[in-house]
User: Fold these one by one.
Assistant:
Number 1:
Amino acid sequence: MQNDHETSAESRLAQACHFIDAATGGISPPLQLSTTYARDPNYEFIGSYSYSRSANPSWEVLERVCAELDGGADAKCFASGMAAVCAFFETVNAGEHVVAPRIMYHGSQDWLRRISEKRSIGLSLFDAGDIDNLRRAVKPGKTAVVWIESPVNPTWDVIDIALAAEIAHAAGAVLAVDATVASPVTTRALEFGADIVFHSATKYMNGHSDVVAGILVTAREDERWQEIKLVRTLTGGILGPHEAWLLLRGMRTLFLRFDRASQTALQLAQHFEAHPRLQQVLYPGLESHPGYEIARRQMTRGFGGMLSLLVKGGAEEAKRIAGNTRLFVRATSLGGVESLIEHRASVEGPHSQVPKNLLRLSIGIENCRDLLEDLEQSLETS
Ligand SMILES: *Cc1c(COP(=O)(O)O)cnc(C)c1O
């Protein structure tokens, strides 16, 4: 292809942005395991690398592809999603203030609580159901970062990214979006005004439940970005070459997997919405969902593969239903090719704000009818 702008994102991704190894013609990148790089007799580096914690070739194709996928200026990969989250929040100074949703990924919130206690960083949590709560939570001139997720895990409330960006910017803050659940297939958060996008690449990006990784993508290579890169080098939360290679391989099928999961999740959500054993089905693609209108605008290619069931009864009833599935695997995590079911409150522990009767489903790529019948039999026999 001569003109990249005419090629769709899914075609570009399938070919890792038309990657061809200059040295060999290989269409899959070589795996460079070296930790250190030699100098010539004049003591100049032979290539552009010195030591693998600072930079190494196994990240480069991956990071280029990630930057393009989200439409960013640059991307960096990390040892895990949480390593990326921690590196990002290292850029917040003592005395500054952070705003985040009350219900969000528990690990990120635990980290925020920790730095707010240990480093006198202010922290305000807002209820994501109403954007006015965010307006009230920001402190102009003091808030450095607004961190949001959309859809919010595990209620799948939808936050209007464009509005959140307006509010953050008016207060002098940057907007960072955890886009793990939406993935860049359906939401390119930078295009809605976000400054930084975060992905737990462990989930949809890799998609095969066999790599732990994190990605940050920036709209601009500004001072904060330089600091994030420095923090990665100094704290060493780097992705191993094997993991980087596997992640890029998994990403090539991201669109296929995500489209399939979205289609199946929508069908399951519609089918089970009125089920007598269920109080409610939470899925942003249902017209009954409070975030439906924003989701239609913001999730441009399907509503994703994540849904939650609020069962009639409490934790016992929910766990019994999860216990009786035969095809759904009882495990945490999301975004893999295999469908998972979990009782979220049990996973999050005693401080969990998640309803006790909530079952979280991550839809994979199995046959939709098989998944539907499995849930049907489990609801009937539990
Ligand atoms: C899994 C997850 C994370 C953390 O990522 P790890 O790769 O597990 O470190 C952060 N945010 C969301 C929404 C997640 O699902």
Number 2:
Amino acid sequence: MKDFNLNNLIRENINNIKPYSSARDEYKEATADMVFIDANENPFQTNVNRYPDPQQSKVKKRLAEIKGVNPSQILLGNGSDEVLDLLFRAFCEPKQDNVITLPPTYGMYSVLADLNAVDVISIELDDNFEPKVSEILSSQNSNSKLLFLCSPNNPTANSFNASKVEELIEGFNGLVVIDEAYIDFSSQESWLSKLDEFPNLIITQTLSKAYGLAGIRLGICYASVEIISVLNKIKPPYNVNQLTQDKALERLTSLDEVNKEVNSILNERELLVTQLSEISVIKNIYPSDANFILVKVDNANLRYNQLIEKGIVVRNRTTQPLCENCLRFTIGTEEENNTLIKTLNQLS
Ligand SMILES: *Cc1c(COP(=O)(O)O)cnc(C)c1O
């Protein structure tokens, strides 16, 4: 990260692009009594007959208050998946650049890399599911643009050691993306407070997990104003729809409810760990800093199929590196968790 210069990382065509200027971009000082005949909308009321705010100002303002950042450090997308895709398109030249991922981890990083014709350098986590810092840093080359750190990591459920993460941010020459989809369940602090310290740091979060809004698709990217401006330039003009913006704002103003649910999930997690430890088919329970638990069982394929037969769908991770015979359980309601425990106890 020495002599960090964002301009060296942006793709040339993106640097030269002139963004589409939507009607709502060109005139935004809207007041209710004005006549809007600039966007070819249907004038009759449906609640959503108007195009949504392309900058999602209200949602960003609220998020900025909650997270202690500036609204200009936020980009919103149609789920984290769109946010991550924008990062590839802004910084990775197809058939030339590469990104680094640390398996076992979230599958979308390599899917998006393939989709964008970008190479993936994979450096497996160590036996404690921690990043191998020196191996990662020595594997980078001048075309390494993004390093994905998922913390807490999916599917392993642990958060990465903070000093290792810091070494990676300091030693990587491209942009470090910390995926904090599960941060609200974590005992570790978010990296958001370090945004101003590290110009190459990008943090993604989502309303899909702790906030209980997977169905509305709202992903969030926090980064420097410079990085956010690049992403803003290339995002589809109306990428976050009106219904999503309304629902997000509503939820972000009832944080007590969200906190209550998160606390209940955390209590259930603790209980579930205790109960799982007494079940014979379970051989290991990995520590969880998220809303799911990774366990090693005697035979993952067998147990997975048996659970399906009993109407319980879990995630079979046995084909993932370091995850042989591992299943991933999302923490459910008290009743759902009881059903899981009861069913696991009946397996033979
Ligand atoms: C679930 C998850 C997300 C969320 O993706 P959305 O597109 O925002 O729903 C992001 N990253 C990780 C690691 C996840 O497990």
Number 3:
Amino acid sequence: MRRSQALAARAEKLFPGGVNSPVRAFRAVGGEPPFVERAEGAYLWDADGNRYIDYFGSWGPMILGHAFPPVVEAIREAAARSASFGASTAAEGDLAERIVACYPAIEKLRFVSSGTEATMSAIRVARGATGRKIIVKFEGCYHGHADGLLVKAGSGVATFGIPGSAGVPEEIAQLTLALPFNDLAAVEAAFEAHPGEIACVIVEPVVGNAGCIPPAPGYLQGLRRVTQKNGALLIVDEVMTGFRVALGGACALYGIDPDLVTLGKVVGGGLPVGVFGGKRVFMDQLAPLGPVYQAGTLSGNPLAMAAGLATVGYLQKHEDEVYARLERLSAAVAEGVAGAAAQAGIAMATNRVGAMWTWFFSEGPVTNYKEAAKSDTQRFGGFHRAMLEAGVWLPPSQFEAAFMSTAHTEEDVERTIAAARGAFQAQ
Ligand SMILES: *Cc1c(COP(=O)(O)O)cnc(C)c1O
């Protein structure tokens, strides 16, 4: 760890907490985050030459593994034609056509450069289209770091126990209602309490940012029904689940037809891409057609489009094989580690949907944020440190989902389960 330590000491002086995104700092699990030098397939190498099996995949994007050759080649070719034009290109249409084919709810879309921008813009469209101010979100769901969406948010906000964020005016936070996930009655009650005032409901269809929490049967359909009945938009935030739980995301997996969908992570193949899109009638509210303003200097960036196109193109072409493999390996590792915990007498609730899962150190069940928060985070921290020591890099928080890639092998899974067995014996 000598080089990593020296790099960390420099970073502490340059970046708040030594990082450019809070959860990278490992504060929740203890220990020092290794500095990454390179990655290939399922493996990361740190600045001291140690190798790790990667289960956070850049927090979601790397579904085909790191430095996947078609993606590398696409970026290389695009870069040789210049990194940015600030004018329209064919590649934007090419990627958009593929997205529309996978997500029928998306009739029109806009590319942006992050998931945060995507959800922020989708909310603006919903408010512009309805003329209403209030938005409904769910406790433990994370939709990026825009002002109105940090209320009772997941990811780092949950990890560090921050109820909201300083710097977000109360007047703005008050326009966000945060309700418990998987509780349809709470949503119905909110619409009754605020008739004609709620612009939209935004949801992570499978929560990933409080750890993995699947929707209860019928819950998402219920949200569709209630929003429709009350003239509010349903925004399904698929920044994490899109192209991950299925090619068509949670919309396809659960058969839901939202008004707006947001994408990010996988859709950019590791480069900064976000998408918001949906029904034509709402998307046509955007400038230059309509009064809702939204823009971006690097939106639809050619390198990002190339990486996205190579990634989504591969997933589309090899859909059956890719998702069957992800399912098989994810089930094997999730159940294998859960079995090792049971053998060691350690309480563990395992939630998984396709290639995303969480091992909660809790009796379970975990169906909402309150239940996730009952997990033994100290124990998770010990588990994380022991796994890292054994060469397995898990997301550094109890409230984050782990991810599988197509580059992982049965052998990686076996080694992971063996590492977990060792970690549990030591606990
Ligand atoms: C990661 C994430 C975001 C934010 O995306 P960024 O690219 O980090 O801004 C939004 N919504 C969900 C569901 C996410 O997982």
